[in-house]
Amino acid sequence: MKTKLILAVLLAFSLNLKAQVARLGIMGGVSTEAVKITQVPNGVTNLIKGSGIVGGELGVFAKIKIILPVYLKPEALLHYANGTVLVQYADGNNTDVTFSYLKAEVPVIVGLQILGPVSIEGGPVYNYNIIASKNFNGQKVTVQPDGWGYRAGAGVQLGNVILFDMFLQGQGNSATSTKAAFKVPYSIVADLGIIF
Fold this sequence. Notes:
mainly beta; Porin; two-stranded antiparallel sheet; 10 strands; elongated
């Protein structure tokens, strides 16, 4: 009985997916953001922080109509950022250094069309830091690679081809015994997408 019920639910879900309209696309954008590295093992530094970090991202997305006016927009992106951060060393000295990082992002965005082509969007984002380690004062600081964040903002779809999104994003993770905590307290991102 349970097996038949599960099969019936799976069949209904499958038919519903076929009935949905899913479109694929590519997107890219620019960002300005802040970064913060804390809880550095071995006491090399107390804090590394910076704002006005400039970034860019590129990737793919799918826009899936669920029930009008709601849609789902999963994305897979590579994000690179570079800028100057202030390093506060344990001995009380401070210095400015150039810092950059590369991460993979997987946002799962839920959108709600509110007025014509305008939508509000938001959802969780999984982040994986591919490159975010650096030598500070001769010792390497390695950050915790993965963590969760969020995106919240608005989007505009022009016709059936162009998407423009602007949103606020945050990211954070916890330190371990060997890796520092890496946070992006805020990131303001503007993306342009092309739908195929």
